[in-house]
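Tutorial sheet, problem 5. The two components below are modelled jointly, 674 residues in total.
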Amino acid sequence: MVPFSGSQMYVLAKISGPLLALALGAGADLAAPALPTDYEVKAAFLYNFTKFVRWPEESLAGPRFVVAIVGDDPFGEVIDRAFLGKTVLGRPVEIRRTRVLRDAAAAQMVFIGASERTRLPEILAVLKGESVLTVGDMDRFADGGGMVGFRMKDSTVRFELNLRELRQARLEMSSQIIRLAQRVIADGG
Amino acid sequence: MRGFGGLTIRRKLTSISMLSSMTALVSASIVFLAYDARTFRERMAARLATEGEIISFNSVTPLLFHDGEAATKTLGGLQAETAVRAAAIFPPGGDEPLATYTRDPAAGAALAAPRGTPRSAALFEADRLTVLQPVQFEGRSIGTVVITADLRELRARQRRYGGIVLVVLAASFLLAMGLSRTVERTISGPLLELAVVANRVSMGKDYSVRASGEGKDEMGVLVTTFNQMLDQIQKQTLELEQARSELERRVDARTRELATANKELEAFSYSVSHDLRAPLRAIDGFSKVLLVNYGAALDDRGRHFLDRVRAATRRMSELIDDLLGLARVGRKDLVRREVDVSALAGRVAAELARRDAHRAVRVEITDGLCAHADPQLLTIVLENLMGNAWKFTGKVPAACIEVSQDRNGARGAFYVRDNGAGFDMAYADKLFGAFQRLHLDSDFEGTGIGLVTVQRIVTRHGGQVWAEGAVGKGATFYFTLEPKA
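Model answer (structure tokens):
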């Protein structure tokens, strides 16, 4: 799969719906300035997830809350803006773009881009046993051992959850989030 | 006057109690309805606020994660609240709701996005209540829940309660009417009875009746006082009655005594007068014989004494005649009929003129004088009064006697007026006394019986006699022949 830039991803998301024919003719009109792009939404989601997940004490030893982006960065500065001036669990947030898996294992949340689909089992194996919330930007991410997988539905951003993986990572997720999930892979299921 | 003042006491009492009870009931009902409406609104607002809070709490993540579906599901909980017509969840500053809910999709009540700073609010409009509940997350507002409820339930409830209130009012009205009628009787009953008794007392002069209905209240006091008053009146009336009958009894007794005494006196004077005649006739007869047969034997001085004896005898005879006349007047039965007073006076005047032909006296008699009286007795009255007038004008040059009737004055009194010697009004009360004479016998001869006779006759007719006059200015004798009207 070819990695996309943010804007390309947006256009694809929009025309995947019933508006396809219309968008082909007048794509420029759809890029209304007030509407957030999918990656702006996803960046906001990443921040919001941190509010509904409880990490074990020992995983929060560092002075910062680290969000690692593994693989191609689809956000650009969007994610920096999303976390700008905000704290998570009282800590300043560090966005760490890396391909080094050990760096990712030290983070509290890892975003795995669509470019890493083939490397996914390898990445997850490294993160196994760590209290790291994994968020994947690819289909069937939760089925493949990830915790939170983004997926599009009716041209809006939704997600799937794997509660078993969350529990094994000793992460607790609020039911408020769980009820929003498109699909939940249940604990023990 | 119409209106409250014109009503009877029963109606007044009933009206007062009805008015006060209905006023109390109506105001209580109004307060109750107003309170119920207020309570209902407050409860509705509180309920919607609670719903709003729950929805707000459950809308945090749908808002954060732009999940319209979950938000719609959250709003779906409002299905249980039948009053809720529509609801929506708005993101901050957005006109497009994240989720909407309508109870009746056909009605499709569009909800306007909230303006300004998000805050909790309950807005009452004509028939709906809108509740705004901001969605808070980590101290900031991330959206607003808007819920609109129908107040038609309130209207229906008010109509229902209004109906109940009307029924209660009507029932209470009838009940209060019956009660006040009953209670009113305890006040108006004794009053009406009092009025009936008072009426009986005033119409029938029956002071023996008594009002019943003693009690400890003011009405009882009134009845008791009223009865005491009747007791007093009855007692006084009885005493008055006794005093009057006692008085009548005494008057009767006195009258009888008086009549007896009068009769005895009359009989006495009659017999005395009658018995006096015999020796008087002897004196007269023998003195006459003495004068005729032995007059020559007497000197002038002797004949003068004998003349004095004969004159005194004549006077005594006249006195006896007058006394007998007076006695007869007292004994004669009174026979009234219509009398031509003018003609009668004319005959008396003619007789006076015949007896004293050398005098020229002008006699004026008003024509058409009539009276309902005993003609014989009235003749005696006129003879006496006109004779007096004739006599007392003997020393005036142009003697004049007037017989007439004072139609304007006191009870149409007849009068005999002369321009003779007159009398002093200071002695007016002595005129009608027996043997009372105001003039010297040497001036005007008389027996002093005439006016007594007149008074006796007038009194027997039920009339009155009185005189007016002044020394040297003549006299007027008035008399009436009918009792006072």
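Marking note: DSSP finds nine helices and ten strands in chain A. Full credit if you identified this.
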